[in-house]
UniProtKB/TrEMBL annotation:
Keywords linked to the UniProt accession: Membrane, Transmembrane, Transmembrane helix
Locations listed in the record: Membrane
Protein name: C4-dicarboxylate ABC transporter
Domain of life: Archaea
Presence of keyword Kinase: no
GO biological process: transmembrane transport
Origin species: Stygiolobus caldivivus
Length: 340
């Protein structure tokens, strides 16, 4: 069984457990949860290296697999998760280990590497969409993954740049802030246009239900970016009013909550469908959504967001356990096929 890019959501799902542990340690001032999150972070790093190694090995063993995957729009789109994982790794390094000036600039390099990767995948996905003959299975919400990944750069940029940390110079801060703004613009319009096409395809052909959750990730990552923009008003470079950012964040939260509710109802009603690795599409968007709710609580102190984040944390754990079960069954079935 060859490991493809569809295995990277497993890595992000494991990081999601670390995320909810950290967020709840902050919300409820619990040191034990912080240490649990830190432990999970190192486990997730090991899982990432293992999946990345097996993914590369698949191409070394089978050179034709490269061409096959380049013509598979879903696998191309899912490869953008590599850049997202780099952003997440950098974020948790700051949270759990801490940085100095030298490490901060090393993380800035990691940021640019991750962004270059997701931008390349995003552009290539767009190229394939407009030039190659498309199959029905190509037109699903997975085409939004490179769009979400592009704006997911905020996961690392926001905690790395001043005023969060004092190490990065004003020049690079302005460069990264400009990238964040441009990325939100790209993500928003790709979400509108590609999302509409994917929705129409899903309504007609009824794809796997878990991908319905991906737009939750798109709206949430836009909200996360918008909520961080006022932090950079001190640069006297571009201006974003704080109250406007909170207002827009809550507006996007409305769509997020609606899509989240519909997606979970579909998940329950379609629970008897034959499962596959697409179940991880539940975990990644839920993690982004919970982080968006965490930030909204931090900005507004409205208790609803705090307890919604806690509820989503429980849901994420449940989906993670279920998704791991499906993953082990997938591995087991793959071993049986190899023996034949």
């Amino acid at each position: 069984m060859r490991i493809g890019s569809e295995w990277f959501p497993l890595v992000i799902g494991t990081f999601a457990l670390s995320l909810i542990s950290w967020m709840n340690s902050v919300l409820f001032n619990n040191v034990i949860l912080f240490e649990i999150g830190k432990t999970i972070y190192f486990i997730a790093l090991f899982v990432f290296l293992a999946v990345l190694g097996l993914w590369i090995k698949g191409y070394v063993v089978d050179k034709e697999a490269i061409t096959q995957d380049l013509n598979n729009l879903t696998r191309v789109a899912f490869s953008a998760f590599i850049g997202v994982i780099l952003f997440i790794m950098g974020f948790f390094f700051i949270v759990y280990i801490g940085v100095n000036t030298r490490i901060a600039y090393a993380l800035l390099i990691l940021y640019f590497v991750g962004y270059a990767e997701v931008l390349t995948v995003n552009i290539f996905t767009g190229y394939k969409l407009f030039t190659q003959p498309l199959r029905q299975e190509d037109l699903n919400y997975s085409v939004l993954v490179p769009s979400i990944a592009l704006s997911a750069n905020v996961i690392l940029s926001a905690p790395l740049l001043p005023p969060s940390l004092p190490y990065i110079s004003p020049f690079y801060t302005k460069v990264v802030y400009f990238i964040m703004l441009v990325s939100v613009g790209i993500t928003f319009f790709q979400f509108m246009f590609l999302g509409s096409v994917a929705l129409l395809s899903h309504l007609i052909f009824k794809g796997y239900p878990s991908v319905v959750m991906i737009p939750v990730g798109a709206s949430s990552v836009l909200a996360i970016n918008i909520l961080t923009f006022p932090s950079y008003n001190y640069l006297d470079f571009l201006y974003f009013p704080e109250k406007v950012s909170i207002t827009l964040g809550i507006i996007l939260f409305g769509f997020e909550l609606w899509n989240l509710t519909v997606g979970l109802i579909i998940a329950i009603s379609r629970r008897n469908l034959k499962p596959n690795l697409a179940v991880w599409a539940y975990v990644f968007p839920l993690a982004i959504s919970s982080f968006s709710d965490f930030l909204l609580y931090e900005e507004t102190t409205i208790g609803f967001f705090k307890y919604l984040e806690l509820l989503l944390s429980i849901v994420i754990i449940l989906f993670y356990v279920y998704s791991m079960r499906i993953t082990f069954l997938t591995i087991k079935d793959g071993e049986k096929e190899n023996r034949r």
